[in-house]
Amino acid sequence: MKRSKQNRGLQWTRERAALLALVCLTLGIGGGWWMGGSRTPASAKSGNAPAAAPQQAGAAAQGLTPERIKAMADEQAAPLLARLKADPLNTDLLMSLGNLYYDAQQYALAVDYYGRLLKIKPADVAVRTDMATAYWYMGNSETALSEFDKALTYMPNSPSTLFNRGLVRWKAKGDAAGAVADWQKLLATSPNYEGRDQVQQMLTEVQKQSGNGPGK
């Protein structure tokens, strides 16, 4: 899944950068790829289960348990939580905590902080999209799709939202037509989209699988 671009000053906090560096070094992450602050796995598996987060295979190989990863995230989150206690409606802190736990694969906690932020700023499309992708990784495709739909009511042409909703439609629901519609809209409305080549490759794959490729 692709992380949305949250263009805010606290997107890459010192705490979050430290956690990411530690996790990446510990796991020896080489798979997956990053684009402009947005994450997508190297591949997405078919079926109703969510695609594995990029770090999971490396974590298992290194013996880094989910409990250890959470402990690392909690340590990095502690100073932010102390500040949040004094300022519970601080949306930058809520976003930073959501991002921190998302990157540590603690998706339920990420959803909690994203949800608290969205109660204050319901039209924040980037955060709502990230919350939807967290729901997807938790195996809850129905809620993920619902949140993508809400995000698109605020920003109908949001590239990250269209990308991810198309992926969930295809992988979780077998809705090839819906996925194609989302990705074609993405390409039409965001001609300079940095993941354009990947979207075109996925379009080719889904159309081939559904028997609706060129010439069909």
Describe the 3D structure:
The protein has 216 residues and is mostly helical. The chain is built from ten helices and two strands. It has helices spanning 14-27, 56-62, 66-86, 91-103, 107-120, 125-137, 141-154, 159-173, 176-189, 196-209, and strands spanning 33-35, 38-40. It has a two-stranded antiparallel sheet. β1 and β2 form a beta hairpin. α1 runs antiparallel to α3 (66-86). The model is unreliable at 7-18 and 23-55 (pLDDT under 50).
Order of helices and strands: HEEHHHHHHHHH
Largest sheet: 2 strands, antiparallel
Report the strand count: 2
- The main sheet orders its strands as 1-2
Which shape, going by the Cα principal axes? globular
**Number of helical segments with 4 or more residues:** 10
Broad structural category: mainly alpha
| Proportion of residues in β-strands | under 5%
Residue stretches low in confidence (pLDDT < 50, at least 5 long) are 7-18, 23-55
**Share of helix among residues?**
55-70%
Summarize the structure.
With 216 residues, the protein is mostly helical. The protein has ten helices and two strands, in the order αββααααααααα. The protein has a two-stranded antiparallel sheet.
Topology:
Elements: H1 14-27, E1 33-35, E2 38-40, H2 56-62, H3 66-86, H4 91-103, H5 107-120, H6 125-137, H7 141-154, H8 159-173, H9 176-189, H10 196-209
